[in-house]
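@channel sequence for tomorrow's demo:
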Amino acid sequence: MKKNIKQIIISITALLVFVNITGCGLMPESKPLLQAIKDRGYIKAGVKYDSKPFGFIDQDQQIKGFDIDLIKEISRRILGDADSVKFQQVTSSNRIPSITSGSVDLVAATMTINNKRKRIVDFSDPYYMAGQAIMIPKTSGIKTMENLNGKRVSVVLGSTSEQNLSTLAPKAIPVGFKTYTDAFSALRAHRTDALTTDDTIIAGFLAEDNNFKMLPNRYTQEPYGIAFKKGKGSRELKELVNITLEEMQSDGTLDRIRKKWMVNYIKK
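structure tokens (generated this afternoon):
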């Protein structure tokens, strides 16, 4: 009995010593994210694969788009190589969990900066300003957001457009999808009457199918930002990305990326 008690005391003492050591900071801490990226030699970036012209798989099966070029240029300026990026597909519903779980270092995926999301993740400065719009068949009689009341409307789950619809057209019937491709497919198959999302995403669909149109009104301003895991571990990376975005804005690089991908899609 005494032997068992002695073993228990030794075990408890060892545990207390371990806790004391770790509490005093003698155990190695995890590296800041920027240093971890430099050590591994590449950025893990979450992007969309179905949101032309921001992130999409082209006919040659390569990932392309505005957000892709943006992250490649950031990689070139931070790591010295535009190809030091591993892209991972995210959707509107899983992009925040992808950040908070650490499966990606950052997300550039048509992600609107808002106060609700800022409580969970950190954002870079805005790099693009979009606006919520409505897409309908050319034969449709829908003309305004109010006309969506009583109509079936395609929305993407987890998007700001889904949230805004309940306020802007409270009697609309939202039909939720995980991806923009699925949301548009439902509209094309006449399972919904309209689709509402950012004008940039709608414009990508219009480039592929001229049987639809985008109504002229914009109901919100949607500043896109690059998202990071909240906390001091990501702070240095976020600050460096903001400096890089400012440089890209000053030297015209950001504007060239905008023109490359948006001139044929969005008429300002």
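heads up for whoever presents: Residues 12-28 have pLDDT under 50 and may be disordered.
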